[in-house]
Amino acid sequence: MAGFRTFLKSGHAPTLFAAFLYFDFCFAVWVLNGAMAPFISEAYQLTAAQKGFMISVPILAGALMRFPLGVLAQYIGRKNAALVEMGLIVVALAFGYFFISSYDHVLAMGVLLGIAGASFGVALSLGSGWYPPKYKGLAMGIAGAGNSGTVLAVLFAPPLAMVYGWQAVYGIAAFFMLIPMVVMVVFAKEPPDIEHQTFRQHISCLFEKDGWAFSLIYVITFGGFIGLASFLPTYFHDQFGVTKVQAGQLTMLAALMGSAIRVVGGYISDRIGGINTLSGVLGVVAVTLVLCGLAGASLTVTTLLFMLCFAALGAGNGALFQLVPLRWPLATAVAGSMIGEIGALGGGFLPNAMGMSKQFTGTYLWGFVAFAVLALAMLVMLRVMQLRWTRTWAEKGGRARSA
After folding, report:
1. Is-contact 300 236, C-beta < 8 A?
2. What integer pLDDT is reported at residue 390 of this predicted model?
3. What range defines the domain where residue 101 resides?
């Protein structure tokens, strides 16, 4: 506990809390369509492939919006960029409440929900910007634990949709978005880690192998998290015949593991190194995904396996973003946004793969297998790349270099 107090005193705790809350509510909005997918699918009689595509649209849109928001944050400040984004989210949710009347409108709403998915790089950089390098992993883990917004969405959206109708949930979400906006205005302060750079310098990580290596690993850790979290309500409802509310509750168990363990992943990585942590994570993810596909007859076993898989994915997210500020100490927001953008695209792959697998083979197994193969490929790449990383900008295993 004394060590945690030392950590808090080394930075600005109110800003870290505001960044967490901002990311938490944005994440909840981002996955709303996934949380309400069983209701939307029933309303418009969607096929398995249509379900997968509908769930993937907000993920893909959010991924594409992350980097532009990160660049904007470099010019107007991370706090201001967060406030602009949250204002746009409220407008987008108002559209969902008043104007949706067809499947095409749902897809358009998915694009607007993507605005909320752009928050990632800004939230993590805002939250960790006050903290020294040796605590960056923990600070980013705490801010990044805002992906627990998934838990809020899958836990509250289905019951609210059952009582008030699924479109009303957009309006309710718009009202609650005012909470993180007020907290951001009152408590957050712009971090001091600002350096004036040219646009070319801002995007330099786009032209480096390390940037793409991080992004591809993030396709697994974060893409797997957001893709599975969005698709699981549909999977549990269709595969096991549970109610829509029960499907949300089961998804909550898995998503809660991923969100909580993200902080632990950052903490462990500060000590044993992000590279070591990621190596274990990718192996666990590959194995558990295949086992999830094979355990499709048992709800209990499947739920437990998903909880283990999400715990590994959460730890992997924390581990990877322990490494980002070590590699790009002066451009963490932009580097994080670029990595988050490419990585989140992997989340769009997973729902589509699951939907296509079910529609054309009659089973979800091959969707799980496809993503497991990608995880193993990223593990091989990581072990090759770490040879150079530990000679240049990181200590053995991926720990921070001593000053």
Report:
1. no
2. 92
3. 13-182+205-396
Please give the pLDDT value at position 198.
63
Radius of gyration for the alpha carbons in the chain, expressed in angstroms and rounded: 20
Best CA proximity match to 230, nearest among 60, 23, 24? 60
Residue 223 lies in a domain: yes
Could you tell me the mean pLDDT of each successive run of 10 residues in the chain, 403 residues long?
78 93 96 97 96 96 86 88 97 96 96 94 87 80 85 96 97 97 96 69 75 94 95 97 96 91 86 94 97 94 97 92 84 73 87 96 96 97 95 90 69
Instruction: Say how many domains are in the chain.
Output: 1
- Contact 114/381 with Cβ under 8 angstroms? no
The span from the CA of 386 to the CA of 403, in Å, is 21
- Is residue 193, in this structure, part of any structural domain at all? no
H/E/C letters for each residue in the chain?
Answer: CHHHHHHHHCCCHHHHHHHHHHHHHHHHHHCHHHHCHHHHHHHHCCCHHHHHHHHHHHHHHHHHHHHHHHHHHHHHCHHHHHHHHHHHHHHHHHHHHHHCCCHHHHHHHHHHHHHHHCCHHHHHHHHHCCCCHHHHHHHHHHHHHHHHHHHHHHHHHHHHHHHHCHHHHHHHHHHHCHHHHHHHHHHCCCCCCCCCCCHHHHCHHHHCHHHHHHHHHHHHHHHHHHHHHHHHHHHHHHHHCCCHHHHHHHHHHHHHHHHHHHHHHHHHHHHHCHHHHHHHHHHHHHHHHHHHHHCCCCHHHHHHHHHHHHHHHHHHHHHHHHHHHHHCCCCHHHHHHHHHHHHHHHHHHHHHHHHHHHHHHCCCHHHHHHHHHHHHHHHHHHHHHHHHHHHHCCCHHHCCCCC
CATH number of the domain encompassing residue 224: 1.20.1250.20
Residues 6+ apart with CB under 8 A from 225: 147, 255, 258, 310, 313, 314, 317, 347
Question: Residue type for 340, please?
Answer: G
| Burial category of 33 from C-beta neighbours within 10 Å (exposed 0-12, middle 13-18, buried 19 and up) | buried
Is residue 18 in some structural domain? yes
Within 13 Å of residue 403, how many CA atoms lie on the same side as its CB? Answer: 3
To the nearest 10°, report the CA torsion of 274, 378, 223, 345. 120
Does residue 257 belong to any structural domain of this protein?
A: yes
Do 261 and 147 contact (CB within 8 A), yes or no? no
